[in-house]
Design brief:
Keywords: Oxidoreductase
Helix content: 25-40%
Distance between the termini: 65 Å
Number of strands: 29
EC number: 1.17.1.4
Pfam families: Ald_Xan_dh_C, MoCoBD_1, MoCoBD_2
Shape: globular
Number of helices: 20
InterPro entries: Ald_Oxase/Xan_DH_a/b, Ald_Oxase/Xan_DH_a/b_sf, Ald_Oxase/xanthine_DH-like, AldOxase/xan_DH_MoCoBD1, AldOxase/xan_DH_MoCoBD2, AldOxase/xan_DH_Mopterin-bd_sf, Xanthine_DH_Mopterin-bd_su
Strand order of the largest sheet: 3-5-1-12-9-10-11-20
Radius of gyration: 27 Å
Enzyme class: oxidoreductase
Length: 764
């Protein structure tokens, strides 16, 4: 029997190009003759009125061809994805340090950057008092959109009668996407100036097409956006690639020359937003066993200066506060604070991690208050039969939390290691160990129903080879590999007979962003639909030749058989072409059963849930505050995996990214000027291979998805990031070993060395 194409571990389709340095990214594309280069002049102040720009001085700089301001934008001066509140170039008001105010176009990139660096000298502005923290904006009632409230039951009454109450406040930092390929766009005018081709490193080509068209005052059919691959995105290239695409496009059309805009890392940090930092206030009632009876929580996100995607991020945070737990009475209040900082945006998990981590901190506090093991408290609060309705009104149909947890705790020797760590801490004065378990329940689908759709094209050529184009984008996650596997499986072909081409708005139109972990779910189904249409035509044609019913025709291992006869797939295709059988097809998929009332925050926003769990062991140096995760055991639910190797890579990568966010990636703004001081690799630390746990054990849960997904698989992009919660709580557990029994260290996130020392000092 031939090895199945779907469900087997195969290398990423571009892996050989990645490791050899031969994979072309946007900056590697050959530059057309006469290509000019753009750079952005950035606001030197956090808040103020823009009075003037000394454009003539900039134009006099070597190599400068043109300078563009807001007044030079021919269409809409907006790159905001939902609200028209985010200008491409500042117009009248300066909103944050790093806001693009003008664009310089020069003969080469270095000269453009040198001219743009004069921004501090050529921008005249009247400074105004900035608001730099979310809590300051919250106190002033300053938001980018109205507050959100989600309530179930009677939380106030049950809080008042609860045997125990836990009050708390907590602060959680944001996170820079730190994609290895920075923001970049190359805009190339097409024949007669009637069209525009934009090569853009983006997760959302259709949105780039629409926003570029609006900026230049064109209809969308005159703009084509292409993206073969990105060197990482993590949400940072969902909406925020628009500014760069729009500037390059405006300049290219005005100057009738190709224009490339590639920002350096410092400018990328200063211009773009990142994961929203959150501040919390909670009041929770619970019983003697640690079961949550009622909760009232306030979540305040730092939205930055504009709305961007802050509304759906907050909505998802509210919908993930429950994580894996039944909360009978709950009131949640979400506030998107408007500050004079970068406009924060999508990041892997899209608000889900910021919502779910709050309940994990609460349950950890409850366990410490009662002197119970936190793993036991968590399991007592799990969703279960009869306790399976979320606060937003969706039933949790797959209850995987308990069986997955039982398997993970047994395999990781949680109970035995808990005793071993207690013995170690009793005799170790300087080094302390900690252990923690956290589960994950993550809803899969865009929480805006109409975005859950995808299209694909499948072309079968007369030699039997297949080309697929779909609306998803490849950012290293292996989407093209999985889609090619799906199509190869449908047509009974070896994997190497199928290839995916660059994402292109002129091929599949009106696509959604590759985000919300839906890439394989949506595009895999759309490609499967297209392949099945072609397969049905070929089966009918083969049935005539073989003299059998079409349903008896089989496609396997590159052969087509039926009625006791067989021939190679390529031969059948060649014969079908001569008989004028259509050998290409479109495919479409829309996720069924979704509905959402965004005013009431009620409905069925998710098609299914992905589950997971992690057990982490931490070692803390109590003299320096340094910490390390020495072991991580992970069990994660990806349904019936399309490609186990890729999925395990995503699980491990997501965990490490979550660990980085919660333990080392610290964003710091100057408290007076509003300058992001951690705007380069020298001051912003991301995890490396050296930060991986010494023992890193990852397994897939291996239970087929109950929902009708592509080959019963489950999404894997975002949910594993939440596994990093266990790393933070393991460090907190180690800090608790420095204080009296039952103490609750006030460890903030990220748990840097300074934060760890502060927590240790507090419990001592």
């Amino acid at each position: 029997m031939p090895e199945p194409v779907v469900g087997t571990s195969r290398p990423h389709e571009s892996a050989h190009l990645h490791v050899s340095g031969a994979a072309p990214y946007t900056d590697d594309l050959p530059e057309p003759a006469g290509t000019l280069h753009a750079a952005l002049g950035l606001s030197p102040i956090a808040h103020g009125r823009l009075l003037s720009i000394d454009v003539e001085r900039i134009r006099q700089q070597p190599g400068v061809v043109a300078v563009f301001r807001a007044a030079d934008i021919t269409g809409a001066n907006n790159c905001g994805p939902l609200l028209h509140d985010d200008p491409i170039l500042a117009d009248g008001e300066l909103r944050y340090v790093g806001q693009p105010v003008f664009a310089v176009i020069a003969t080469n990139r270095e000269l453009a950057r040198r001219a743009a660096s004069l921004a501090k000298q050529v921008i005249q502005a009247e400074p105004l008092p900035p608001v730099l923290t979310a809590l300051a904006a919250h106190a002033a009632g300053q938001y980018v959109l109205p507050p959100m409230h989600l309530t179930r039951g009677e939380p106030a009454e049950h809080l008042a009668t609860a045997p125990h109450r836990l009050h708390g406040t907590w602060s959680l930092g944001g996170q820079e996407q730190f994609y290895l390929e920075g923001q970049i766009s190359l805009a190339v005018p097409q024949e007669g100036g009637e069209g525009l081709l934009v090569h853009c490193s983006t997760q959302h080509p259709s949105e780039m097409q629409q926003l570029v068209a609006h900026a230049v005052g064109w209809a969308a059919h005159r703009v084509v956006v292409q993206c073969r691959r990105m060197g990482g995105g993590f949400g940072g290239k969902e909406s925020q690639s628009a500014l760069f695409a729009c500037v390059a496009s405006l300049a290219a059309l005005a100057l009738k020359k190709p224009v490339k805009l590639r920002v350096d890392r410092d400018d990328d940090f200063l211009i773009t937003g990142r994961r929203h930092g959150f501040d919390y206030r909670w009041d929770v009632g619970f019983d003697d066993e640690g079961r949550v009876l009622a909760a009232d929580i306030e979540l305040v996100s730092n939205a930055g200066h504009s709305a961007d995607l802050s509304a759906p991020v907050m909505a998802r945070a509210l919908c993930h506060f429950d994580n894996a737990y039944w909360l009978p009475h709950v009131a949640m209040h979400g506030f998107c604070a408007k500050t004079n900082t970068q406009s924060n945006t999508a990041f892997r998990g899209f608000g889900g991690p910021q919502g779910a981590i709050a309940i994990e901190m609460i349950l950890d506090g409850i366990a410490r208050r009662l002197g119970l093991d936190a793993a036991d408290v968590r399991q007592r609060n799990f969703y279960a039969p009869g306790r399976d309705m979320t606060p937003y009104g969706q039933q949790v149909e797959e209850l995987h939390a308990q069986p997955l947890t039982a398997q993970l705790l047994a395999n990781s020797r949680y109970a035995e290691r808990r005793a071993e760590i207690a013995a170690f801490n009793a005799t170790s004065r300087v080094l302390k160990k900690g252990l923690a378990f956290t589960p994950v329940k993550f809803g899969i689908s865009f929480n805006v129903a109409h975005l859950n759709q995808a299209g694909a094209l499948v072309h079968v050529y007369t030699d039997g080879s297949v080309l697929v184009n779909h609306g998803g984008t490849e950012m290293g996650q292996g989407l093209n590999t999985k889609v090619a596997q799906v199509v190869a499986h449908e047509l009974g072909l070896p994997f190497d007979r199928v290839r995916c081409s660059a994402t292109d708005t002129s091929k599949v139109a009106n696509t959604s962003a590759t985000a919300a972990s839906t890439g394989s779910d949506l595009n895999g189904k759309a490609a499967q639909d297209a392949a099945r249409k072609i397969k049905a035509r070929l089966a009918a044609f083969a049935a005539e030749r073989f003299g059998c019913a079409a349903e008896l025709v089989a496609f396997e291992a590159g052969q087509v058989s039926g009625g006791g006869q067989a021939l190679p797939f390529a031969d059948l295709v060649a014969a079908a072409y001569l008989k004028r059988v259509q050998l290409w097809s479109d495919g479409f998929y829309a996720t069924p059963g979704l509905h959402w009332d965004r005013t009431r925050l009620q409905g069925h926003p998710f098609y299914y849930y992905a589950w997971g769990g992690a057990v982490c062991e931490a070692l803390v140096d109590t003299l320096t505050g340094e910490s390390r995760i020495t072991r991580a055991d992970i069990l994660h639910d990806v349904g019936q995996s399309l490609n186990p190797a890729l999925d395990i890579g995503q699980v491990e990568g997501g965990f490490i990214q979550g660990l980085g966010w919660l333990t080392m990636e610290e964003l710091v703004w100057h408290p007076v000027t509003g300058l992001l001081t951690t705007h380069a690799p020298s001051t912003y630390k991301i995890p490396t291979a050296n930060d991986c746990p010494t023992e890193f054990r990852t397994e897939l849960f291996g239970v087929a998805n109950a929902s009708e997904t592509i080959h019963r698989s489950k999404a894997v992009g975002e949910p594993p990031l939440l596994l990093g919660f266990a790393a933070l709580l393991a460090i907190k557990d180690a800090c608790a070993a420095c204080g009296p029994e039952g103490c609750d260290p006030p460890l903030r996130a990220p748990a840097t060395a300074e934060a760890v020392l502060d927590a240790i000092d507090a419990v001592r």
